[in-house]
Here is the input.
Amino acid sequence: MDIREIDPCDEALLRRFWEIGKAADEVDRPWSTYWPWPSAQAALTGPNESRKAVLLAAFEAGAMLGIAEISLPLMDNTFAGYVELFVAPDRVRHGVGSALLDVTRQVLAAHDRRLMMAEVSTPVDGPRSPGMWFAERHGLKAALTNEHRVLDLLATEDRWPALAAEVAPHHADYRFVTWRDVVPEELLDGYCALQHAFNEEAPAGDLDVEAEHWDEARVRGKEERFRRAGRHETCTVAVAPDGTVAGLTEVMVSTHSSEHGMQGGTLVLRGHRGHRLGLALKLANQRAVRDRFPECAAIHTWNADVNAAMNVINNQLGFETVELLVEMQGEVRT
Ligand SMILES: CC(C)(COP(=O)(O)OP(=O)(O)OC[C@H]1O[C@@H](n2cnc3c(N)ncnc32)[C@H](O)[C@@H]1OP(=O)(O)O)[C@@H](O)C(=O)NCCC(=O)NCCS
Here is the structure.
């Protein structure tokens, strides 16, 4: 077996790389949200100032059998590297995944990363997924378990007006601002402060993460990447009477798979909790998503099981748990 880095600008190779990821991600998982080909191609070939990507592929007799996408944060968390590793479904249990992981460790060590992180899906009940067996076999440990939950927007939107009316008196002096894709200049500093606070204020279990660094260049760079990839972000913030951006929530919808949206972060700063802002933010943002993408019928979210407040909100909205997403981490040590 030959394992080597591939050039994302080689379209035929990148297409095969993506096909293996998609096929492996969808095995026994009707809720897979693997990224559409145009988004993957745009994201993996364009510039990214906050992360470096290394794409590895395993070949035998010229055929690609498995892939690893290694993502190296450049602006913060530079001690860590994230790996997504997939083996073609008809080639599993032949050591391809293990061989890819060995080379992944070498790549991480060469970039001075001491921690390897990987997200692994597994059923809520029933047998554990191959990914869980594999990750534990290779010394990774579960650091945070998330529920992957899905909201049927069409079946639940008639609840929204009553919920919004119920929570409104708790935050009468806050104002809400919703935007599409581009963070308004006057809210940029507050938006960066919230993104920075995220890793410190959201429950992270045993995950070894530090605050992310956000500034205007990073925000505008991300907006440009999303634009090229056909990803559209709808974001709502709550602004306190003194002008502080106190909370935010964001949903991403891809033009290449606009029947569903992906919930990004939701955060209310500690000093502003207790005003029912979390639910109000999500209600306003979901309404904005429905108006913008009438065909968007579902929202996927991933919430830490230890995040009680978020889980209460999502229960009220009607999210259903479909599987677990376990964030695994382990020492790189080659
Ligand atoms: C997880 C995955 C990458 C494994 O690839 P693979 O090439 O089959 O892995 P290997 O053959 O190197 O397996 C190594 C060891 O992992 C464990 N393992 C892998 N699949 C397993 C399964 N279905 N049941 C139990 N143990 C399993 C075993 O200990 C295995 O060693 P063994 O075959 O000698 O018993 C592959 O199933 C896949 O693509 N899954 C979907 C994506 C995913 O979950 N990725 C997360 C990886 S962190």
Remarks:
- The longest strand covers residues 141-152.
- The chain has a mean pLDDT of 96.
